[in-house]
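Researcher: Please predict.
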Amino acid sequence: MTEYSRRKFLAKSVGSAAAMILPQFQSLAQAQVATSGIPTRMVYISMGFGVSNSWFPTERKTGDLKLPGLLSPMTGHRNDISIIQNLSLQGPPPQQAPAHYAGLHLLNDASAVNPKHNHNTSIATCDQVAAQYIGKDTRFPSLALAAVDDTKLKGGNGPGMRSISWDKQGRHISGIEGALKLYSTLYGNRNLSKEKLTSQFAQKKSVLDFLVKDLKSLNSKLSRGDQRVLEQYTHSLREVEINLARSFDLSSEKGTLQHLKKPPKDLSGVDDVKLTYDLMALAMEADYTRVISYMMGVDPILKSLNLNISSHDMSHYRGAGKEAHHARDKKNMEMLSYFFDKLKAIEQPDGNDLFHHSMITFASGLRHKHTRSNLPVLFAGHGGGGLKQGQNVVNKSNTPINNLWFSQLRHVNPKLKKWHNSQNNVSEVFTA
């Protein structure tokens, strides 16, 4: 059954609303798997402000990955990730581009860092290029996400910057800020006010409440395995809604709230990241999107860890900056491991999990302080096959980070011969 006929079947059998939010089913996609395979998902996550030095493996040559202490939360995923060292941003010189704006061009190494310098910005980021290849048939060809972060440097990306994505005209793409807005975008009305949405959560209303009849009809048409897939998906979505309600102190223990006297505070920090990861996994599972970029906050995470220090002071090891950096770096790995676990729990029609069919990059536009060389880059997933993970890949100094983006883009579009200042393929990882 082709993807078109699958969607037509779902829309006819269970209503267009349910068809828009459901995952792939083996019993409806066997023919599609045989002809075109499971679509690759690509995720780019920017952590901002680099890492502490002890984040990196100590080995100076390419070989099996030995995890340092700060990467210990990745122990269960060691064979599914690689650390790729000596990737650098070439970009404009620091005197023309403020160092803490490096995150702006992480995904394209473009000359544009600060519009006031009038640099050329007409270089789309790699997530937007990937969306042209693999995202055009989805509801959201790409999702640009950002954290709720009201601090001046916006996670190390500069004032006014709300994502790490730029289109081919050189325009900055405004990111969806926070888990609550992402939920509204995926499952409701993006323009719905926070007060209205949180009131709905308080009254225990779910997007699934409107689809009960449709879902029961669909369940009777699915195989037993797909019934489990549907049950897992709907359970995960309800868990997200419950956790969103709890995050605004609107849990059932507090009783039903009909009207809000004042807007709840924005969810931020660790709770917001984990709920964003939950929603990213759901969006990928439902094939709502195949390309996601996520600009994480830094100060909100520090605050939620009860660390009374700014992200800028942390990055320069001022005061208790070194200890704060270690705590934040390890928490980032714990949350990323949580995201990987989510993806590994989602079975795909070919019997592999969603993580296997994904390529996920977790990186920063700075190594530490103002350094834009040897960036921290963790690359995960198997892209559906043809990748060798579990490595510490050590390139020669100042290798363009566009080598990695080119390798990923060529994995989904083998006809691509070069991308901007890329020099070659990351052949240690991309073996096919």
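Model: Strands lie at 41-46, 63-64, 81-88, 143-146, 176-177, 291-295, 358-363, 377-381, 391-400.
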